[in-house]
Amino acid sequence: MESHIKWWAAGWRWFRTGDWVEVAMDPPLRRVADNTQQSAESVAEERMRTGVRTSAVKERKIRVLIIDQATAFGGSIIVASRLVRAIDASKVECQVISEMDTAILRSHFGNWGKVDVVRHPLSYEDHARITRWLGRMPMSNLITRPVMYGISLISAVMNTVYAWRLGLRIVRGKIDVIHLNNELYNSEAALVAWALGRCFIVHAHGPAQHGFLQRFLARRAHGFVAVSTHIKEDLVRKGVPEQMIEVIPNPTEPMTINPGVVQSIRARYGLGPAQRVFGIFGRIVSWKGHREFVLAASEVLRSMPDAVAFVVGDVSDGDRKLWVDLHDLVRQQGLTDRFIFTGYIDKVVDLYGIMDVVVHASISPEPFGLVITEAMACGIPVVASNLGAPREIIDDGKDGLIVDPKDTPALARAIATLLGDERLRHEMGERGRRKVLARYNMDDYARRMEQAYRRALRNDRAPSAHP
Question: Which of 445, 458, 431, 283 is nearest to 366 (CA)?
Fold first, then answer.
């Protein structure tokens, strides 16, 4: 009977902790560890109990599960794909769970890593759509609030299926580290990781919203990765201890502009050889400043008859209203023949290749700004917002320009200044390119993320660092 109890206890220990290190064991303990797959911690406890000296611990390849719940294409999944491609596969085995369209996942991950689609029955996008619909209904808070609570309860019940599938994947895959790629918005994934006793880190790509559940889970995380100092400061304000947070800026791939492709793209959009081109890139959401870009671009286009403005990207999270509003605004400006809306572009480097200036106009603090480093990697000068992380990337006046995006004349002047000075564009673009290659390269990012995983494992089950 006693032996059966020991076997059950050993099985439960394996289920909760997995097997993330290999231990050089003395013969009396090797049989116990081999048969029960005890963790390094349980083996060490057995050594102390029996008086056997502890031998050296040898690290082995660790298994990481990156969980991304975004349903709309954006920076978090781009960064995840770059990490999977760049990390040393002999040291870290990356697996990915996403809720995104499989065609997009294939285009970014290719054959790198194991990528599966596991979706919430009721996604955050569905929840947001229902919230917007209720907000338009002529009902008082006495009705809408109970309805929203009811929807949240239904969502929680339905998403237990999602949590169960994650748990099976974690246990069967002997996952060592769960990498939550959307801060703590995916509370089901964090709860599963905690319930199974697995190490998990929180990757903050944007500002945190910490309610009771998020604060509970944050105290049990084994580490935080912030994409910028701006985001680190936000986490600290939300109560995350500073020593638990490491700033690892997003990486940028080396980007080579093919002159032949550039010529082809210019011909596709009917651009003459002397026409100057500038544009805004990224998801079309209100806080990214597309409206502010259209207003400033209109001023530039009126003063430069040979210039053309591009809006590169598509709407995000299923809201097409902003897309319609932007087209209406362009018509009001009387410049429909001078603006080009491309929609979603898979190979964005081709569009960077035709740009003289790239504009970043976020009207809310930008968590990082992949568009900025991507354009700089191509040697294209950037006019960027003064809100959030762009100030950490760009040295104003040296390798780019920083402006207030809500100041339409100032934004227009900055764009026109670069468009009108080819030498300045070249000098700023070259300085920016060198900076990005040195500070935001893929190899350094992959190395630092591997260190973050191993550091989290060394701190495993040690949330006492939290207050």
Answer: 283
